[in-house]
Amino acid sequence: MQTVYKIDSERMYERIMTLADIGKTVQDGVKRVALSKEDKEAQILVTKWMEQAGMTVSHDHFGNLIGRKEGISSSSSLPSIVIGSHIDSVRNGGRFDGIIGVIAGIEIVQVIHDAELSHEHPLEVVAFCEEEGSRFNDGLFGSRGMVGRIDQSHLKLKDENGVTRYEALQSFGFDIDPDRIAESVRTAKDIKLYLEMHIEQGPYLDSNDYPVGIVKGIAGPSWYNIKLEGEAGHAGTVPMSLRKDPVAGAAEIISEVERLCTQDPNAETVGTVGRVKVLPGGSNVIPSSVEFSLDLRDIDLTRRNRIYQQILDKIQNVSFSRNLSFNVEKYMAIDPVYCSDEIIQLFNEISEEKEMNAPIMISGAGHDAMLLAEITDVGMIFVRCAKGISHQPNEHAEKADIALGTELLLEAVLRSM
Q1: Residues 101, 16: contact at Cβ < 8 Å?
Q2: Cis peptide upstream of residue 280 (ω within 30 degrees of 0)
Q3: Which domains does the chain have, with CATH numbers?
């Protein structure tokens, strides 16, 4: 049986657009990296909206922004129903990635607050710190912290200006203390279930004319930094046969990444090299070193591990044949996860009742939900984005689709609280 409580789509969309102005770029994108002044400005604004929805707002020591509406007094010890996502962005990213999930969570609590509905379980809305990893090349930080997957080595990472994450957390304000992160780790007894709404960031929903989708599993991301070192020299005087050119070696390796990730057309493996740094960087100088990133993802952990080993073998072989030295540093590796069967069934029932006909699908992108799955049942809803475009200024989601996804999420919360 459907309930009659309605979300305010105009309010939601206005808030999304207001946040988009914080860190707005000249290309009409968004640059709001974690623990920056833009991030702080956005968090102050989101705090105000959380408070308007009847929530008490605080930060944990991982920098996660948390709004909480208590349940009825006799059940204050019950685990929370948590809705979350993130408000940090990639550099020159879009206006909807992560944002719609946080705004949807606030809207849901606002509806419950305004209708004066009682609920046994506390309700929480979380904006996780540095989901994107754009500042410290180490994503899903806040959710990894919440489930106890962060140690001192993650706090020592530096941004491009030499600022450590420890220093960024310490100076951010809101009583965040990186020396007290252990106090902010949560367990299964704290959270009943976790729900997240996100734009798909892929073309499936849009190309098949589905406004929303139900996620059944999330591909596991693994991030690496690869460095090859050779020998610098004059571009005109060193014969090709005598060169120790790390960039030529990197080209072989990057081509192998593409070949390995496309060899099985039915596999959901994806590999991306999104950052390359060449030194010394002169057009007439043979490079001395090259560093490049590797983002490798798959829903099948065994296959992902096998392909990574094949890439590593290629790095070793190329380095040996070209007289290069190499170093591979693993930044992050998270196993693929599957969403709760019970929550998938609940979403599906609501979808059918509302005649949404939401498909059940896999997420190729990593999300905070995959970390929360370590301690609780998780469920995810996708909202289509135009042409599957994300992580750039042309990212777009329709107001009506965001509203529909929020209605689905609201109904699930009402039946769970």
Answers
A1: no
A2: yes
A3: 9-219+336-414 (3.40.630.10), 221-333 (3.30.70.360)
pLDDT digits (tens, 9 = 90+) for 345-373: 999 999 999 999 999 999 988 899 999 99
| 414 within 8 A of 5, measured Cβ to Cβ | yes
pLDDT in tens, 237-292: 999 999 999 999 999 999 999 999 999 999 989 999 999 999 999 999 999 999 99
Identify the burial level of 2 via C-beta atoms within 10 angstroms of its C-beta, where 0-12 means exposed, 13-18 middle and 19 or more buried. Answer: exposed
Q: What is the CA radius of gyration of the chain?
A: 23
- Scan for tokens 């004319």, then name that residue: 209
What pTM value is reported for the model?
0.85
Rounded-to-integer distance, Cα 230 and Cα 217, Å: 42
- Residue 230 CA: distances (Å) to CA of 213, 288, 319, 387: 48, 5, 9, 42
